[in-house]
Amino acid sequence: MDYRTVLTTCAYCGCGCSLYLEVLDGRVIHTFPCKTGPVNEGKLCVKGWNIHEFIHSPKRLTRPLLRQNGTLVEVSWDEALDFTARRLREIKEAHGSDSLAFLSSAKITNEENYLIQKFARAAVGTNNVDHCARL
Amino acid sequence: MSEKVRAKVKDLLDSGRIKGFLGLRQADGHLGPHLFTDGRELDALAVGDLKRPGDTRYPLNKQLLTLMRCDPDDSFGVLVRGCDERGLKTLITWNQVDPAKVVAVGIACPPELAAACECLKPYPDEFVDGGKVEGSTFASVATVDALDLHSRLTHWLHEFSKCVKCYGCRDICPMCFCKECSLEQEDLIHTGDLPPENPIFHLTRAVHMAGRCIDCGLCNEACPADIPLRTLYKKVAEIIAQEFDYRPGYVEPGEKPPLNILGEAPEH
Asked: What single string gives the DSSP state of each residue in B17-48?
């Protein structure tokens, strides 16, 4: 039996609540708020309390998939990125920068969010940037 | 305070009496729950408050239940304060813990924590460290009891109206071991509704905790809306003590809670 409590940060929104994940034999089974977390001081919302549930969800996208002839097919990161870059360039050239939009996420880091808006504005040339926290 | 606990746990682990010890570990600037399985990692074991009273109290008994269900053949040690020991005794009464498979290592709570908790007995029966502090009465209950009936109702309805229905009170509770929770029964609670029905949601839990709640107060500390749940459950405990002469965790393990006994109705 391998039992651990792992300190981490809630990924559901930008608050950054500290929590302990209870991990039993490699499976995350429960969540406890960290009482000395400076943001949440031992409290969590209903989403944070249940954050262990999405980790092993079969619905999670864990590998790059590319739709080929109507079916999602697993591809390498290189292939997925090459395809995405080519299509972004084609769409921009055919319809202009503002025909593209970028949707960012609360489940990634602040730095990654910075990068995606920087990419949208500086590389692609659009202010069409939004975020999944706009519920 | 950590030194004596560390020595005791080292003995238990080195002698093979226990397979692991659920305690608190100093890591990453926090003092959080950890299962120690090797005497050599005990340098990181620590006990005591970090910045304010109770900020390192965790539902170790709840984690113990998880361990014992996964590994029923081995024995485990667990760090207990007065409240945790009450919890352990009550879990034994409810047949959730095999007393032969648990070794409790007790610590007595410091005066600040005992006062903040309004704890009747802020120390376990046996403890390896800390000093015995006399218990206190439930001043928070007396304050609410002093209000007239209408003001008391207004007070509680206002407190309950703050609820965001996170279920944190249930999820942190070391006595919440039911496989099917009353708070998820459609017949009792409109499970999909927000805000929760006031006061049905909270009173359902308060009644369910009667004869079970061991007054650890973790629910109160976990509540993001600062609802004084502990005061509510202390009041429930007082009623149970008054009517049935029973306080969960203050009686010996095995003594059945009054609401589990079918018998004569109380006299009044």
From this structure: S-SEEEEEEEETTEEEEEEE--GGGGGGB--S
